Amino acid sequence: MSIMTELAARDRVFNFLTPTDSPVDVRHGPILYLEDVNVSFDGFRAINNLNLTIDDGELRCIIGPNGAGKTTMMDIITGKTAPDTGSVWFGSRHNLLTMSEPDIASLGIGRKFQKPTVFEALTVFENLELAMAADKRVFPTLTAQMKPKHRERIEEVLETINLQDLRDRPAGILSHGQKQWLEIGMLLMQKPRLLLVDEPVAGMTEQEMERTAELLTSLAGKQSVVVVEHDMGFVRSIARKVTVLHQGSVLAEGSMDQVSNDPEVIKVYLGEEA
Ligand SMILES: Nc1ncnc2c1ncn2[C@@H]1O[C@H](COP(=O)(O)OP(=O)(O)OP(=O)(O)O)[C@@H](O)[C@H]1O
């Protein structure tokens, strides 16, 4: 695939990278609020009276069996799927159900899909630079001299994702885990308010999982982070509050200890893993 073709695809993934002039208002409540959300696909209720609240700066883990509705929930938040009924608010000002997918993204909701999609031929630094310039208005100036504040931002993100030593290496030589961190870094370039992260540690080594746990916990506070993950060891290592989805609804919510001792959760999901 040519760089330009990849760029076009990248633009779809990172289309939130347009600065917003309409800040999110969390003074009186949560950053994300879903109430009584329902979605059916051909008569099958994939999301069933779902209620979910994420506080500003929170790190929330979402777990649940296959088909519980986790991906569909993320699709609703990002505007990819329109619910049949319910409310979805980003802060108290933005009704996400009235907004398009690119507009929701431009508010600062970044989504990390399971598979990393970095530009393998470009260096780590250039990938971050490109993420900053993904805004079509900035892209033509990409070869112009970078402003110090942009360079500083890249340095900051390189440090956060711990890839300073590999900054000038092509992304293609990175390990799977390092590519995942780079992609998280690319999302961070525009300081999103909410990051949705889908199965970040699938395919990672133990050591990479530990580093990912450090990275995600370090991001919380600065931004809100919602992590969907099946690896219970990993969830336990980062979890503050855990939400268990089952058949499109919240089955249980609380600390990892609370949910993993809940008989219903054990029955439908954790089983012998608990
Ligand atoms: N576009 C669609 N058309 C029809 N059915 C769908 C569609 N998207 C999702 N579903 C169904 O809705 C249910 C919820 O799926 P979803 O992918 O949200 O679950 P999940 O919790 O993310 O599962 P997994 O852990 O396997 O990724 C599943 O039964 C799925 O088959």
From TrEMBL:
Q: Where is the ABC transporter domain?
A: 32-272
Pfam families, per this entry?
ABC_tran, BCA_ABC_TP_C
Task: Provide the alphabetized UniProt keywords.
Answer: ATP-binding, Nucleotide-binding, Transport
Matching InterPro entries: AAA+_ATPase, ABC_AA/LPS_Transport, ABC_transporter-like_ATP-bd, ABC_transptr_urea_ATP-bd_UrtD, BCA_ABC_TP_C, P-loop_NTPase
- Name the chain's protein: ABC transporter ATP-binding protein
Species this protein is from: Marinobacter zhanjiangensis
What Gene3D superfamilies is this protein classified in?
A: P-loop containing nucleotide triphosphate hydrolases
Care to name a GO molecular-function term for this sequence? ATP binding
